[in-house]
Write a structure and sequence with these properties.
The chain has 237 residues and is mainly α. The chain is built from ten helices and four strands.
């Protein structure tokens, strides 16, 4: 990747992904600099350097070609290099890693689907691969039971599932000083602030429990395993 005078990476021939990045950065640049329409073509060719000049003749373009036509022809040239079958193979073989968060997996699928040519089916196929590629059978079953689940709903269900999982871990630990994962420490601190101090032993009492509202012994919360009637989440009333 060569460096142009505009301090942007210039894509090489057949370099699809970097063309998209270059195009986005270039359009941000000309908008920020207030480049006039009649100077955009020259600025684009200058920014692309030798690559842009080499493409003029085979694409039947010139330095006088309007910017909208020039950028469209360059776009078609670079996108024509996409191997849809290969990109789709990569997408449909993307599995969720053991320690990967659901939101990270979803974002990864969104990025990989950009060059697959799914068009209007893109979100639907992301949901399909999310269900097929996730590593949790419980959540997979819940998603399969849902009718007409779209990407937004599937994402929210994944977030809620991870949140409930964190709640369960917090309640199992009982705030007795035992080790918990880093993701749950903020929740623990918040609950500790709302609860009265108690001694660290099996007979300790929690007063005004944040989950159930009652006083009870540590690890004896009556809300554990229950579903809230208001929000539908687990482990609180």
């Amino acid at each position: 990747m060569a460096q142009c005078e505009l301090n942007m990476n210039v894509p090489t021939l057949g370099d699809v992904k970097n063309w998209k990045v270059f195009k986005m950065k270039f359009e941000i640049y000309i908008n920020a600099m207030g480049v006039k329409e009649d100077r955009k073509s020259a600025m684009l060719l200058f920014g692309m350097g030798e690559i842009g000049i080499e493409l003029l003749e085979p694409l039947k373009l010139s330095m006088q070609t309007e910017y909208s036509v020039l950028i469209q022809k360059f776009e078609e040239h670079f996108l024509s290099k996409v191997n849809l079958n290969f990109e789709r193979y990569i997408f449909f073989n993307t599995k969720m890693k053991p320690d990967q968060k659901f939101i990270d997996y979803i974002v990864g699928l969104q990025n990989k689907s950009k060059d697959c040519g799914f068009d209007n089916l893109r979100d639907s196929l992301i949901v399909t691969q999310l269900i097929c590629g996730m590593n949790n059978d419980v959540l997979r079953e819940k998603l399969l039971r849902e009718k007409d689940v779209d990407l937004t709903k599937a994402t929210e269900m994944c977030k809620l599932f991870e949140c409930n999982k964190a709640h369960l871990q917090v309640m199992k630990q009982g705030f007795s000083g035992e080790y918990v994962e880093e993701d749950t420490t903020v929740m623990i601190d918040m609950i500790k602030q709302d609860s009265h101090k108690y001694k660290d032993n099996t007979n300790s009492m929690i007063k005004g429990c944040r989950f159930c509202g009652y006083d009870h012994e540590v690890k004896r919360c009556p809300a554990y395993g229950k579903t809230c009637n208001n929000c539908g989440r687990l482990n609180h009333f």
